[in-house]
Amino acid sequence: MTIKDKNTQNPKPKGRKSADKPAPAAPPVKDQRFKERWLELNSDVHSALCYWNDLTQKYDGKMSRDQEQLQEIKSLLKDLQKKLTVFGD
């Protein structure tokens, strides 16, 4: 019979094994808040894009006030030019 040295024996692990750990029941609160914020941001961007599309369809082909005024001024100048050419002849 031989006597085994204590140092050569494999010590048993202390504490619980990793397989004994219970699975987490729910994601951490931080991850849940991040997900909620991400969904809210996504919703806001989607709403803004829809609003932008609605506005561009509504005003497509319409002139702005500045453009309308410019067209009116151009037409007045053309009328004035015609009257001046008639007066000059």
Describe the structure.
- With 89 residues, this protein is an all-alpha fold.
- It has helices at residues 29-58, 65-88.
- It is rod-shaped.
Low-confidence stretches: none
Shape: rod-shaped
The percent range for helix content is 55-70%
First CA to last CA: what distance? Answer: 139 Å
Please tally the β strands and state the result. Answer: 0
- Please report which band the strand proportion falls in: under 5%, 5-15%, 15-25%, 25-35%, 35-45% or over 45%: under 5%
* Oligomer classification: single chain
Q: Structural class of the helices, strands and pairings?
A: mainly alpha
What's the mean pLDDT score? 80
Largest sheet: none
From the alpha-carbon coordinates, what is the Rg to the nearest angstrom? 40 Å
The DSSP helix count reads 2
Element order: H for helix, E for strand: HH
